[in-house]
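Input (structure):
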């Protein structure tokens, strides 16, 4: 359900509210995407008449599935409030949330001057993630076509440091904006994570699991600061 500048409620063409349409189509396309993904190994098995059997598949899943399931649950709890319903459906189907979708959504909402959790924020987030998905697909298609001629360039030692620092540079730029706005809240999880990674560098591969830890620290610190009168809400301002 969307309201125009006169406050009049605007409904979709089929009469259902905007939020209902998002959930209906989101669930439908997520189910379709799921069956498309699992159909690939089935089609390969049918074509080559090679069936691994239940035991090898279960043994392979036993080693990796618990890790991926844990990370998936954590990402749903952490990212869904940021992205909104439409952005979450798109993001979890297309993947690369931490690397691409979440930064794109946050940066788009920042530029549009809308807040997370609002209808405007959800619309902007959905558009940003959809655009990111389209651009990513086009770049991957171009990359596949140009893979052979570009391989020597991409594997060159000169470009290796740049590729290794793409993600830190992306989140560093976002961090400057958000930390400067809420530095009282951000300083605690920031210091905690810096000390943790310095003491245990191997945890760098478990960033997704530690995201909710940082979120809980930030929420706790915000609560403490608010109780002590060091943090005010926009309404109190």
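Output (sequence):
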């Amino acid at each position: 359900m969307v309201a125009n500048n006169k406050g009049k409620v605007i409904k979709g063409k089929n009469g259902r509210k905007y939020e209902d349409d998002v959930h209906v189509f989101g669930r439908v396309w997520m189910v379709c995407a799921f069956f498309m993904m699992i159909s690939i190994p089935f089609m390969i098995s049918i074509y080559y008449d090679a069936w691994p059997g239940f035991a090898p598949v279960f043994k392979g899943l036993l080693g990796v599935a618990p890790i991926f399931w844990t990370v998936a649950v954590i990402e749903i709890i952490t990212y869904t409030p940021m992205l909104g319903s439409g952005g979450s459906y798109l993001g979890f189907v297309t993947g690369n949330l931490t690397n691409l979708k979440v930064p794109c959504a946050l940066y788009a909402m920042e530029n549009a001057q809308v807040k997370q959790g609002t209808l405007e924020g959800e619309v902007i987030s959905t558009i940003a993630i959809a655009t990111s998905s389209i651009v990513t697909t086009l770049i991957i298609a171009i990359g596949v076509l140009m893979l052979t001629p570009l391989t020597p360039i991409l594997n060159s030692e000169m470009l290796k440091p740049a590729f290794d620092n793409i993600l830190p540079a992306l989140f560093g730029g976002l961090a400057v904006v958000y930390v400067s706005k809420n530095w009282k809240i951000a300083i605690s999880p920031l210091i905690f994570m810096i000390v943790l990674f310095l003491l245990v560098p191997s945890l760098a591969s478990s960033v997704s699991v530690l995201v909710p830890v940082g979120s809980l620290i930030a929420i706790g610190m915000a609560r403490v600061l608010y109780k002590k009168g060091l943090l005010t809400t926009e309404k109190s301002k």
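Notes: Residues 54-94 form the longest helix (41 residues). The two ends are 30 Å apart (CA to CA).
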